[in-house]
Amino acid sequence: MAQHRRPTIIVPYGFAHFGKSLFWYTSESLFAFFLTEVCRIPPWHMAVILSISIAVNATSDVVVGTMLSRRMARLGDAVGLQVRGAVLSGACLVGFLASGLVPASVRLPYAIASLMLFRLAYALYDVPQNVILSLAGRSPAEHNTLSALRLFGSGCAGLLISAVFVPLLAGKPAPVQALDTAGLAAAMTVCAIATAVVLWARGQTSAGAPPPVAADTTGRSGLPAIMLLAANLLFSAGTAFFTRLEPYFAAYGASSHLTGAGVMIVIALGGLLAQPSFALLARRLSTWRLMTISSLVQMVGCGALYVALMRPGPAWGVLAPVVVASLIYGFGAGGTMMLSWVALTRVIARSGLSAPRTFGLFTFASKLGFAFSTFMLGQMLARGDYHHPWLGNAPLVAMMTFSPLIGATAYLAFAVAYKPGRDNQNP
What we know:
By secondary structure, this protein is mainly alpha-helical.
């Protein structure tokens, strides 16, 4: 039975996470740019709107994880709930990304209302699909596979959003951008709902939830979970600040659109390559050792990006080192992100914590970090004119490239401090 269940659910789960990640990467990479450049909302207002909306989404994650925990106790129930969330959040996303088509006199209140509805609906999509990671995995090895595949799908979504940004939005007048973003939202919604329905159909054929991974009674403590939540908050704040600055860098900061697009695409590509690479390494090394490696690689990537972006010269001369540095950074960040979800399943199994509640708290911590980074982004953009090349502008480049160091250091400390012994048959 187990052999039939694995191929039934694992691949559809990767596709479903790709569909959900289209929404997530759009909100991470484009919402700030969309509000300031397409809707013409001042940066300070943008920061307040997005920060509050993300805080609403974070709180909704905890509420959904707590109130609907029984509705997500079995695989069949969780896959059904994420379909409803996909439909609701997709409809709200289309409404929000159509804000640029609304008359200017009502654009701001319309954008706020539609964004808040999207954040509320997204929790019904996000939390159940995250919980499936725990329900569908029968062993640490399967958790590695599921986590790698979900983040491979996530990486594909990030790569797609990065690839369409420059041709879709950069250098176009606001009315054209408004039409393009509304069309993009509609296309993403169709994809997200379709992949969620496929996962639901496959999940219904599974004979109940797989047996949970056996708990390690030697590690029953809430401290590892608290450490992981704290590391996730710091990691999310730092990487989100970087991610939110990427579209501004691509549109205004780079010496050419080629360099700007190169940074966004290659970072996404590095994250994509990290998933199969770390999944293969997980057969020989523990999660904690791999997290140490990925955190160190991300740190190296931050420093390399700063050096590359501060390097004077023509666009073609700058492009090569920027691409290499972006690949290193994306590979390290993508690996750390994948391993954080694997670590979460390990901590849940060892501590006996409720999976829906713990996943809700994990995403709550992430989104608090996102809210903080958005607020700081608005502060930065409001202080000066960002519509000029950034190359050689040490403060701007430093803020963009060094902010992820905080989270990478936090996960490095977590990996070093929390080593529960032999993990997945690896030392």
